[in-house]
């Protein structure tokens, strides 16, 4: 490395020539790979998330809607709820299995830094934990064991960091969970009123005690999920509109970048002009053949 360049081992991010890193990230994105964090706690939390969503779908479908005497009431609400559940779980999968913007490990080499063509005296920053050159707004995640671009936070419920590449899917996940929670609570309230009128004799195919227990647990789950995801959704939208991640807000970091506020921030995260593609978790999904011969393991995550 030239003596005119300085390399510092620090944990804070600093402006860097992002074009080289972006090119490296694009090359990684084009490769056939699946991102998955091998964290026991995160895997358990992700399993619990899926179990609770499927439990809510079971109660709504088999306890409330199928025994209903109104055909169209059952069909309309069944289609709406199950579509929202599919969108929520698809958003969860996209968040969990998408590389959030990991900086390549161990790229702080003499050859790589010479390729950056830095100006004499320019300071670049290296993460001492993963030995990588840290681009602007990148932070190290101790669970993913990588530096993540525009890292907002690590969420155990999706078993992944929320960063530059998957924040859109995380926002959709919180939005759809809040919507199905609201729908489930509304159906539960209507079901309780209906069952009380008929004295629980004809409102469900299950016995009254079982029906009550299933619906009470569904209501508790719905209230918990709704409060958590609604707050998280609002926080994420606020962060996007202010172009400030949660870590940057907590650390009170002064922006050294040109902020993209409001609609500019939304377009940078969701892509393009407002359209139905913004709320579609399948947008941009390509079914690629996974080549097991090129699989490699690297610490807490594996790629294919």
TrEMBL record:
Q: Which residues form the Palmitoyltransferase DHHC domain?
A: 126-252
Tree of life domain: Eukaryota
The membrane topology of this protein is:
Multi-pass membrane protein
InterPro entries listed in its UniProt record? Palmitoyltrfase_DHHC, PFA4/ZDH16/20/ERF2-like
The catalysed reaction is: L-cysteinyl-[protein] + hexadecanoyl-CoA = S-hexadecanoyl-L-cysteinyl-[protein] + CoA
- Which Enzyme Commission number(s) are on file for it? 2.3.1.225
Q: Where in the cell is it found?
A: Membrane
Which parts of the chain span the membrane according to its record? 43-65, 71-89, 169-190, 210-233
Q: Which UniProt keywords apply?
A: Acyltransferase, Membrane, Transferase, Transmembrane, Transmembrane helix
One CC-aspect GO term: membrane
The keyword Secreted is assigned to this record: no
Tell what the record comments on domains: The DHHC domain is required for palmitoyltransferase activity.
Q: Which family does it belong to?
A: Belongs to the DHHC palmitoyltransferase family.
The name under which this protein is listed is: Palmitoyltransferase
Question: Organism source for this protein?
Answer: Oncorhynchus kisutch
